[in-house]
Amino acid sequence: MNTENLRTFLMLVKLKNFTRVAESLFIAQSTVTNRIADLEREMLVKLLRRDTRNVALTEEGKTFYEYARRIVEMEDACISAVKGGVRQVRLGAVNAVYEGALKERILEGIAQGKAYRVTIGHTAGLLEMLWDGLLDVAYVYQETKRAGYVCRPFSQDELVFLVRADKNGFPQGIRQEQLKEVPCAMCNFSLQQIGSYLRELFPAGHMFPFEVDNSNKVKDFLAAGLGYAFLPRGLVREELESGKFCEIAPLDFKRMLIPSYSICRTEDAELCF
Predict the structure, then answer these.
(1) How many domains does the chain divide into?
(2) What pTM value is reported for the model?
(3) Which tens digit of pLDDT belongs to each residue from 142-182?
(4) Which of 170, 171, 184, 197 has the smallest number of CB atoms closer than 10 Å to its CB?
(5) Whether residues 184 and 55 fall in one domain
(6) Same domain, yes or no, for 137 and 229?
(7) What domain range is 90 assigned to?
(8) What is the CATH number of the domain that holds 165?
(9) What φ, ψ does residue 137 adopt, rounded to 5°?
(10) Judgement on whether residues 185 and 91 belong to the same structural domain of the protein
């Protein structure tokens, strides 16, 4: 049985969305579909019920899920033991945290001979994967006091208002009342506080020309010169330094600070950066 198919199945159970699984694994959505189909052909049963909005386990799928989880855990333990104790650490991270604060540390670790398996996702989904033993460490926007886990501050970022440098119509800064007058992309961040902060800056019922739940897609909107957007500074550090994007100062509203946290089981505390 192909364990890559099993890992894809386990992630799909958690994220309940083929597109998000494909994005997290950096593969085509058709590959996700094919991997699930391969498992169902091998098992001769339907493991999932699918409709346009949801993915749910069948009764057979619920049984299969428990065995799939154990097989993946055993494979990881086996690889670690055979490779002389080098453990592949399973990290999950919100995309903005990965790009802004985690990526460089992972690359440094790889250069030192360490190994990582990285999953990019939303806070809620990553925490579910951590609780279920599918991740060793999660880097997310939410604190927890869950028994048996260690939660530590990891990084702090801030939301900045951005535009492609040659499209800046507010070189002196922008007031809140002017936000509704410009084309602005809305990233539906999974952290409720960020969503509340952003929507309070605009009139009730305001229609955004582009709404998406992936911050990298907002960068595409900015790069195309289609308008403005709020994003974490760490996510666009390279674009700001190169002069591709520019930051517009808020004149009568405050920037939002965004703390992130590393969360892991107490016995895995040494795996956190």
Answers:
(1) 2
(2) 0.70
(3) 899 999 999 999 999 999 999 999 999 999 999 999 999 99
(4) 171
(5) no
(6) no
(7) 3-141
(8) 3.40.190.290
(9) -140, 140
(10) no
The pair of three-digit structure tokens given for residue 244, joined into one six-digit string: 């591709």
Would you list the DSSP string of the chain?
--HHHHHHHHHHHHH--HHHHHHHHTS-HHHHHHHHHHHHHHHTS--EEE-SS-EEE-HHHHHHHHHHHHHHHHHHHHHHHHTTT--EEEEEEEHHHIIIIIHHHHHHHHHTT-EEEEEEE-HHHHHHHHHTTS-SEEEES-----TTEEEEEEEEEEEEEEEEGGG-S-TT-B-HHHHTTS-EEEE--SSHHHHHHHHHTS-TTPPPSEEES-HHHHHHHHHTT--EEEEEGGGGHHHHHHTSEEEE-BSSSPPPEEEEEEEEEGGGGGG--
CA angle 3, 21, 108 (to 5 degrees): 80
pLDDT in tens, 158-167: 999 999 999 9
Residue 144: both structure tokens together: 């927890």
* Assigned domain for 270 exists: no
